[in-house]
Design brief:
Strand content of chain A: 15-25%
Oligomer: heterodimer
Strand order of the largest sheet of chain A: 2-5-6-9-1-10-11-12-13
Distance between the termini of chain B: 26 Å
Shape of chain B: globular
CATH superfamily of the domain at 4-258 and 445-496 in chain B: Amidase signature (AS) domain
CATH topology of the domain at 4-258 and 445-496 in chain B: Amidase signature (AS) enzymes
Structural class of chain B: alpha/beta
Distance between the termini of chain A: 82 Å
Strand order of the largest sheet of chain B: 1-3-2-4-6-5-10-11-9-7-8
Largest sheet of chain B: 11 strands, mixed
Number of helices of chain A: 17
Number of strands of chain A: 14
Order of helices and strands of chain B: HHHEHEHEHEHEEHHEHEHHHHEHHEEHH
Largest sheet of chain A: 9 strands, mixed
């Protein structure tokens, strides 16, 4: 069923006249070895229905047993988000029928979440926003349906297939409080929050957070109210927004759409909306979904969780340095500007640069290599920077070879080519391809004398004190040595031979 | 060599020692029970599935272990009837429902595993009210079981199949589950010993759930000692069941052998008597109390004022949990599938299957529970029922300060006639009036025979209730009552059951 595109108001206009209020619910699949309530592995991409057992298939008679690691990870997340950790809480059943839910209820948490009332600071354009965290709770993931047929959705599908490998993977839901006062920055703040949350999860080692594999999924709530009214409008919930860029676009398009409705005197319907990657817009979901009554009640198959205070303290003491503190420290240590930091974060290069510096490179060299040469290659290959087959230690080694004069920049790039091609370490590539700067003076002297003899007029100019003319001779020498000479040394030698040194 | 009927009339303890001593083989013993089933089950209809080959193979394995000089457990070689609500890898598990007809689980319940490891011979799977919802087995999709005392009467429920099998000497032991009285009430009306252990004392892993916070597996037997031996064999901590208690099994076998109530404080619950109780039930109950007093027990009356709210609270909590537990039967992965013509939607197939696969009582409870959990009603129904549950647990705590055990009739009446209450759910629900408080509080309780009602000659059960993890007290009191009554009569109460004899020791073609 095709819906007519809704009217919109240009974004800048909309945020001039309306104040947006946003809120995010983010689901993160935890990277525990086994599932939430059984011993099945949490693998991605295995053959369908191979990582399953009676428990995660919800077979009659099976019972769940809590994965302690998942509780620990959730507490870690809660602590990193400055939340209170409940000393007693329970799982609850969320009841609804759907073929990818083995039991037709999801074990989740309702009014007794494990972590409550925290915050996460994010920065946009140098301005800091403190995002309130309402709750962090733990639940189990569902299976995955694949609807085969023209529509690709359950309605109108010829048939559907269900893969239960994902069913029972521990899922953490982080819910923000409403985020006021973001104005025109609302879409950027939403994106910055999800980015910060992603970095936090990675730093905590609780998830690999691969959005493209669905291990981080967002629901974005958006509402608007007349500017300065201090009121809250009716919100919509845009489901399954699965990339950082989409988070930003979803907020933006909802603001544009809602503004047009209010301008026209229409009311905003509280509803679920679907985000479309192709158009960057949302369409209304089924109204039936919002009428869903989940009939939550405490899960009688599990006993309450009572994380001992000493254990929580232990987890707190073992928290790693968190991304924000780490960034501040690295910026100071590496002497980077705010602009550098932004560029490095956007490129996903901060950790790589830090590791390269830790391996001995200068901050400037490391920054330049990763932001320029390596970013270009990652773009060409269409992969994340971190996915390039070169380690920070190898980049640092190339920097060292340049520093010591064994490589010039052109040779260094050739060495990098070799490393990326899988020919081994920088030293291996230097050895196998013979990529060393020529330092043998007799070889260089012969090449210089040859160049002088070939261009006596140029040589004469240099002798007369026109030192710039030496460049012409330099070029000839570099060509003769196949680029493997150090230009500065060659220049010095030319001047020496022509009595100008 | 003993005759078949001599073998089947032994107690489980006697059978086990005869097997251990080499006086009889487990195969012989199993064969005698299979013969008995073949001759009587057309009338009793205790079994939904008889696993003759599997049982004989298990018996043979016990005989081989004995021959090899390996140590045998206290119930090795003893046959047992297993309620069809426990998963079994080599037998179907239907829960008495069409929706699971023919389903063969890929895993054994923890209790199934423990029985196998103990060398107990599982004869087959017994009939039950569908998904354990009922007090008569009339809610079984496969037809009712019959009470061996009078085949026109119900054997109680929901574990009526296991109770009927044990009372008909088809097996010396049975396993049932007790959610609101489903072991104790059939035990009472079939003249057996039936025990609901402390909640969490016996594993629920592989027990297809009716109401998770109430379901408790337990033993059915003809003697208190036999029940204790099975209780000990089947119980204990199970890491696969989070609600399983990590505590040692109370010393029930020792208690069953220590039939001494001298000095024990016995509390009679005043709220569990009066209107609605059959006169024969009350008179036998009162005699049992006097008997205990004569044996040296100190009898007092205790009041548990909230017990009268137990039944309504139960009929909110149990259906609420059931409405969620039974949601998984949706035709997508296993069991019945109706209406899948390759055009119907998954939702349509789910509804058609559930409409065709569940019986009326199951549907009634799913609807009750769905309603009770609905937004806007939750606090008034489910929430309030949970508060009542707390109050009942407090009543028990207070009562157990005054008494070591509490007693009451197990059920207000003796076995009723088949069909008598089938169309009146409220009348049916009253059968569990006395047993439900124990489920809501999670403590231990037993029904032990205390005589026959004069008006109909049918057995009456004495309910004994003990605090959480004091299951051993049940056996001490139960053994004292059993011993004194047997001595007074000169024989066991069950020896007077003659329902099967009335239809004749039915012909061999009665077997299946």
């Amino acid at each position: 069923m095709k819906q007519a595109p809704e009217r919109t108001v240009p974004f800048e206009d909309a945020v001039t006249r309306y104040d947006p209020l946003i809120g995010l619910e983010t689901h993160v699949e935890l990277g525990t070895r086994s599932k939430m309530f059984c011993g099945c592995p949490t693998v991605f991409g295995a053959d369908p229905n191979t990582a399953v057992c009676p428990v995660c298939l919800g077979l009659p008679g099976s019972l769940p047993v809590i994965n302690k690691a998942a509780i620990e990870y959730t507490i870690r997340i809660g602590l990193a988000l400055n939340s209170s950790i409940a000393s007693w809480c329970r799982f609850a059943r969320k009841n609804y029928f759907y073929p990818d839910m083995p039991k037709n209820y999801q074990i989740s948490q309702y009014d007794e979440p494990l972590c409550t009332d925290g915050w996460l600071d994010v920065e946009v354009g140098g301005e800091r926003f403190r995002v309130g965290i309402e709750r962090v709770h733990l639940e189990e993931d569902t299976g995955k349906s694949q609807h085969v047929g023209r529509s690709g959705r359950i309605h109108g599908a010829d048939y559907s297939l269900v893969d239960y490998n994902r069913a029972g993977i521990p899922l953490v839901e982080v819910v923000t409080k409403p985020i006021p006062g973001t104005g025109a920055l609302a879409p950027a703040v939403a994106r910055a929050y999800v980015t910060e949350l992603r970095d936090l999860m990675r730093a905590l080692g609780v998830s690999d957070v691969r959005m493209e594999q669905g291990s981080l999924r967002c629901d974005v709530n958006t509402s608007i109210a007349p500017a300065g009214s201090g009121q809250w409008g009716t919100r919509t919930e845009t489901k399954n927004v699965n990339s950082l860029r989409s988070v930003e676009r979803a907020v933006r398009s909802e603001i544009e759409r809602q503004a047009a409705r209010l301008d026209a005197g229409d009311r905003i319907v509280q509803e679920t909306r679907h985000f479309h990657e192709e158009t960057g817009t949302t369409t209304a979901g089924r109204s039936k979904e919002e009428a869903q009554d989940y009939r939550y009640f405490p899960e009688p198959d599990l006993v309450p969780m009572e994380p001992p205070g000493a254990w929580v303290e232990e987890i707190k003491a073992a928290l790693p340095e968190l991304p924000r503190a780490r960034r501040a420290r690295l910026q100071a240590e590496l002497g980077l500007t705010d602009a550098d930091m932004t560029a490095l974060r956007n490129a996903g290069a901060l950790d790589l640069v830090a590791e390269t510096v830790a391996a001995g490179a200068s901050a400037e060299q490391a920054r330049n290599w990763w932001l320029a040469e390596l970013s270009r290659r990652a773009n060409e290959a269409g992969v994340e920077l971190s996915a390039l087959p070169v380690s920070p230690a190898q980049v640092a080694r190339i920097c060292a070879l340049v520093e010591s004069g064994q490589l010039n920049n052109k040779l260094a790039r050739q060495v990098l080519d070799g490393v990326l091609a899988g020919d081994g370490s920088p030293d291996d590539v230097v050895a196998t391809r013979g990529l060393t700067v020529v330092t043998d003076t007799s070889v260089l002297t012969a090449a210089v004398d040859e160049a002088i003899a070939a261009k006596p007029d140029v040589a004469a100019k240099v002798r007369d004190g026109k030192l710039a003319a030496a460049d012409a001779l330099l070029g000839a020498v570099m060509r003769a040595t196949g680029g493997q000479a150090d230009a500065a040394s060659v220049r010095e030698l030319i001047l020496q031979r022509l009595g100008q040194a | 060599m003993a005759s078949g009927s001599e073998l089947t009339s032994l107690t489980a303890a006697e059978m086990a020692s005869a097997v251990a001593a080499g006086e009889i083989s487990a195969v012989e013993l199993t064969g005698a029970h299979l013969d008995r089933i073949a001759r009587t089950d057309l009338h009793v209809r205790a079994f939904l599935h008889v696993a003759a080959d599997g049982a004989l193979a298990a018996a043979k394995a016990v005989d081989e272990r004995r021959a090899a000089g390996e140590p045998l457990g206290p119930l090795a070689g003893v046959p047992l009837a297993l309620k069809d609500v426990f998963t079994t890898i080599d037998m179907p598990t239907t829960c008495g429902s069409k929706i699971l007809a023919g389903w063969q689980p890929p895993f054994d319940a923890t209790i199934t595993t423990r029985l196998r490891e103990a060398g107990v011979v599982i004869l087959g799977k017994t009939n039950m009210d569908e998904f354990a919802m009922g007090s008569s087995t009339e809610n079984s999709a496969f037809g009712p079981s019959h009470n061996p005392w009078d085949l026109a009467r119900v054997p109680g429920g929901s574990s009526g199949g296991s109770a009927a099998a044990v009372a008909a000497y088809q097996a010396p032991l049975g396993i049932g589950t007790d959610t609101g009285g489903s072991i104790r009430q059939p035990a009472a009306v079939c003249g057996l010993v039936g025990v609901k252990p402390t909640y969490g004392g016996s594993s629920r892993y592989g027990l297809v759930a009716f109401a998770s916070s109430l379901d408790t597996p337990g033993p059915l037997a003809r003697t208190v000692l036999d029940a204790a031996l099975l209780h000990e064999t089947m119980s204990g901590h199970d890491p696969c069941d989070s609600t399983s208690l990590d505590a040692p099994v109370p010393p029930v076998v020792a208690a069953a052998k220590h039939a001494d109530v001298a000095g024990l404080r016995v509390g009679v619950v005043t709220e569990l008597a009066g209107d609605g109780y059959a006169s024969g039930v009350l008179s036998r109950f009162n005699e049992a109390v006097e008997l205990l007093e004569s044996l040296g027990a100190k009898v007092t009356e205790v009041s548990c004022p909230h017990f009268s709210y137990g039944l309504p609270a139960y009929y909110l909590i149990a259906p609420s949990e059931a409405s969620s537990n039974l949601a998984r039967f949706d035709a997508m992965r296993y069991g019945l599938r109706v209406g899948d013509d390759m055009r119907a939607s998954a939702e349509d197939v789910m509804s058609l299957t559930r409409a065709a696969g569940f019986g009326a009582e199951v549907k009634r409870r799913i609807m009750l529970g769905t309603y009770a959990l609905s937004s806007g009603y939750y606090d008034a129904y489910y929430g309030k029922a949970q508060q009542v549950r707390t109050l009942i647990a407090r009543d028990f705590s207070a009562a157990f300060e005054q008494a070591d055990v509490l007693v009451s009739p197990t059920t207000p009446t003796t076995a009723f006639r088949l069909g008598e209450r089938a169309d009146d759910p409220m009348a049916m629900y009253l059968a569990d009036l006395c047993t439900i408080p124990g489920n809501l509080a999670g403590n231990a309780a037993m029904s032990v025979p205390c005589g026959l009602a004069p008006e109909d000659g049918l057995p009456v059960g004495l309910q004994i209730m003990a605090p959480v993890l004091a299951d051993d007290r049940l056996y001490r009191v139960g053994a004292a009552v059993e011993g004194a009554l047997d001595q007074r009569r000169g024989h066991r109460i069950l020896d007077e059951a003659n329902g099967i004899e009335r239809v004749g020791d039915a012909s061999a073609e009665a077997g299946r």
